[in-house]
């Protein structure tokens, strides 16, 4: 992943305006470069939605709608602000350890050079390079992001509180993504300050947005449970503007699959799939048994974090918080 602010050549050829966002340029984009097999675990981004353009190579995207979240075994570990992960082991999931997966209907698409994928808000996605790959994306802000920032601050505060007094680096590294370990050592006063800033900052932004509108999100009329769409091209001389109806020439809807179909794509024949799943599950169980005495504290901490950061718990806290803020304004 690379910031593109100083890439003059790319600045000239990237044009998100073809998709209705002329104000977004290279400064709002991220470059992704990876070798064969490089992958991102299945997760959702809590903020905004996503436009991804494939520049070189091929990349497989597997996506699930928000409505199937209960089937994907969500977790906040490794903890990272704005990312909620699935425990199902994508891109090579196990039906034996996560049987609810068989009820999902993944959307699977392989991006070729020149393809662009729109990922709606809160859609789960796992990504894998099928060869050396270069892609570029931009995250599109939505009005609901202000509310999500409060939820993320609540999650951060819960995780920070539970990790107070934890000094084991191994334990911290098992709970946090490497770029978030500062939360583990942050003092409670600083964590509370961040939470307060998010809460009262969101309240101010909500009043402002009601008066001034919602910027690009309102203009684009983006929906949370929208279909996955793929269109091309985005770069070079082939950029095609949106037509008067607001659609994009060459746009197509990505169809969903049965999960068994997806597993056949990943593992090949069914016998090989079952064998690999059993092997992975057995190896995992053996590893857990061998290290049980050393990982009790780690497992307890993970359990508590998953409980206190569960979306239902966060929603309850957010609801009570909104009620208290409303009573203060009244």
UniProtKB/TrEMBL annotation:
Keywords: Cytoplasm. It is found in: Cytoplasm. May play a role in cellular stress response. The lineage of its organism: Eukaryota, Metazoa, Ecdysozoa, Arthropoda, Crustacea. This is JmjC domain-containing protein. The keyword Cytoplasm applies. GO terms for cellular component: cytoplasm. Gene3D superfamilies: Jelly Rolls (2.60.120.10). Transmembrane segments: none annotated. Residues 1-157 form the JmjC domain. SUPFAM superfamilies: Clavaminate synthase-like. It comes from Petrolisthes cinctipes (Flat porcelain crab). Its main location: cytoplasm. Pfam families: Cupin_8.
């Amino acid at each position: 992943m690379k910031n593109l602010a100083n890439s003059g050549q790319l600045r000239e050829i990237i044009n998100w305006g073809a998709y209705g966002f002329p104000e977004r340029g290279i400064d709002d984009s991220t470059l992704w470069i990876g070798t064969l097999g490089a992958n991102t675990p299945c997760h959702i981004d809590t903020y905004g939605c996503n436009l991804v353009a494939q520049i070189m190579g091929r990349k497989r995207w597997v996506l699930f709608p928000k409505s199937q979240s209960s089937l994907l075994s969500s977790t906040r570990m490794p903890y990272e602000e704005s990312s909620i992960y699935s425990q199902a082991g994508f891109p090579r999931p196990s039906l034996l350890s996560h049987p609810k997966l068989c009820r999902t209907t993944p959307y699977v698409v392989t991006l070729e050079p020149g393809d662009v994928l729109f990922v709606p808000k809160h859609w789960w996605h796992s990504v894998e390079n099928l060869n050396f790959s270069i892609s570029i994306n931009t995250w599109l802000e939505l009005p609901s992001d202000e509310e999500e920032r409060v939820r993320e601050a609540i999650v951060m505060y819960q995780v920070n509180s539970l990790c107070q007094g934890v000094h084991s680096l191994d334990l911290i590294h098992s709970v946090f993504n490497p770029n978030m370990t500062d939360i583990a050592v942050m003092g409670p006063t600083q964590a509370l300050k961040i939470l307060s800033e998010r809460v009262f900052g969101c309240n101010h932004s909500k009043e402002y947005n009601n008066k001034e509108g919602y910027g690009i999100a309102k203009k684009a009329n983006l929906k949370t449970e929208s279909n996955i769409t793929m269109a091309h091209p985005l770069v070079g001389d082939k950029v095609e503007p949106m037509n008067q109806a607001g659609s994009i020439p060459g746009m197509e809807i990505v169809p969903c699959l049965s999960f068994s179909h997806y597993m056949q794509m990943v593992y090949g024949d069914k016998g090989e799939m079952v064998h690999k799943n059993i092997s992975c599950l057995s190896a995992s169980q053996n590893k857990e048994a061998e290290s049980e005495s050393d990982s009790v504290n780690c497992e307890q901490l993970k359990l508590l974090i998953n409980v206190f950061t569960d979306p239902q718990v966060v929603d309850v806290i957010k609801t009570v918080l909104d009620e208290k803020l409303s009573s203060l304004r009244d």
